[in-house]
Design a protein that fits this description.
Layout lengths: L11 H16 L3 H11 L9 H11 L5 H14 E2 L11 H8 L10 H13 L3 H4 L1 H6 L3 H10 L15 H7 L11 H10 L7 E4 L6 E2 H6 L12 H10 L7 H8 L5 H8 L8 H6 L7 H14 L3 H9 L20 H7 L3 H9 L8 H11 L2 H10 L3 H8 L3 H7 L3 H9 L21 H7 L3 H9 L15 H7 L3 H7 L14
Parallel strand pairs: 1-2
Antiparallel strand pairs: 2-3
Length: 505
Amino acid sequence: MPTPSLPDRPHLDQLRRRARELQRGATGGDPDAVALLRRHLGAVPEGPVPLHLAQLALARALGFAGWPRLVSQVRVVQAASRDPLDTPRAPGSPLTELLRAAVLRFGPDDGPASWAHAASVLAAHPGLPAADVHAAAVTADVDALREHLRRDRRAASAEGGPFRWPPLLHLAFSRLGLAGVPGQPVAALELLLAAGADPDAGYCWQGLTPPFTALAGVLGGGEGGQPPHPAADALAARLLGAGADPNDGQALYNRMFGAADDHLDLLLRHGLGRGDGGPWRRRLPDLTDAPADLLATQLAWAVVHGRAERIRLLAAHGVDLDRPLAGRLPVAPGRTALQLARRSGRPEVVVLLTALGAHADDDPEGELVLALLSGDAEGVERLGAAHPDALPVLRSTMPSLVLRAAVADRFDGVRLLVELGFGVDALGRQDLPVEQPWETALHHAAGEGKEDLVRLLLALGADPGARDRRFDATPLEWARHLGRGGTAALLGPVTPGAPRSAAGG
C-alpha cells in the first residue's frame, strides 16, 4: 500500500491541534469533519465527539492504524529531523564553515563552488581536523581521526557540527575529494566502524522520510544529480559489509534517475528485497517502504523509462515480474509491469518482459493505449472495433496521452493521437504515466531539447504560450532555464510576448 503523507516537518503539537480542530468541527456538524470521521470510523457518535475518536480518525486518514502508532513514529522523525538548508546568511566559525560547505546538503548550493570554499577554509585553518572529530571525518584525515578515537571512542558516535551529524555522516556526505583535498576515506570509515559507529546512521532531511543514511550519502544522486563520493564503491561495500541494511529507500530513490545500475547490483547482492527492512523500517514501519515495495518502485521506474538493463538485473535477482506493482510511485498501483509498459508506450519493454517470463494477460485497454502511443493505426482500428466504447473513454480518463507519446519519442503516436481528438496541449506528467496536470508535451520537448519534436507539435497546433501548472512558465521559459538553445530559438519567434531580441534564448 502507498505510504501515508504527513505534513512537511511533522510535529506532535501540530497534529494534536489538527485533532482538536477535527473534534470541534465534527461536534459542530462541519460537513468535511463529519465525512472524515464517517470515512475512517464508520459512524459519528451522537453529541460531543470525544478527542480520542478524533485522534483515531486523523491517524487513520494519515495511514496509521491508530493514534499511538502515529505518535511513536512522529517522535522518531522529530528526533531525527535535520535541515541542512537552514543555514545563517552570515559566515560561521571556520569549523562551521568547513562542515557546512564540504558536504552534500541536497540543495541548490551543492556543487564545486561550495566544496572549493570548504577546501579554502581548510587550507587557511589546517589544524581543524586535529581539533575536532567531525572535521577529521569530513576531511578523512586518518591520523587526526585515530587520535580523537584513541582519546575517546564515544566520539565515533557523537553528534556535532551545524547539522548535528555523527562523524560517519560527515564522512559519507563529504565531497572534499572532488575539490582536490587528499584523504583516506575508506581507512577513516574503518576507524569509525571499529570504534562503534552505526553503519545505518542517518537523518530525516527536513523531517521527510525515508531517512538520508550514510549509504545514501556515499552513493549520491537525487533529483539534482549530485555526484557520488569519489570512493563510493568501496565505502558502500564496506558499509554493507558492516551491516548497513540494503533496503535503503532514499539511496534507491536518489540513484533511480540515472542510467547506471552499479549501485542496484551492489544492493541486490547484499540482500535488497529481503529481510524486514532494517532498523529504520522497524522504527518507522508506516513511513518507509517494505523491501518488496522498494523493488516494485525500481521495476516500475525502469519500465516507464525503458531501462532494459535495469529490468534484466531485477529479473536476474528474482524480482516477480507478475506481481502487482506497489511502492511510492503513483503509477496505478495494482497493475503489473506488462500493463504499465503498455500504458507507457514501451513496446520494446513489453517484448523484453515477455522474454524474461512475464505472463501474458487480458488487457484490452492497455493494448489500445500501446497501439495509440506507438502510432499503430491498424491496431487502433482493430481494437476499437472490438471495444467501441474504449476510445471515447480513454479521451476522458487519459487525456495526456500526447505527452506520453512525446516522452517516449513516438512521433507517429503523437500524430495519430492528435488526429483522433486527443488534446495536443493536455497537461500531464512527463516523468510518470499518470493523469496529474503538470506540463504539456511542448514543455517536455522544449526542456529536453527535442527540436524535431517541437517542430512537430507546433505543426499540430500546440500552443507555445501555454503555461505549466507547477512553475507557471511557457515552453520557451523551460528551454531557456534548462539551457536548450535550439528549442529556445524555435519557440522564441512564436511565443506571445517573448522579446524579439531574446528569441534565440
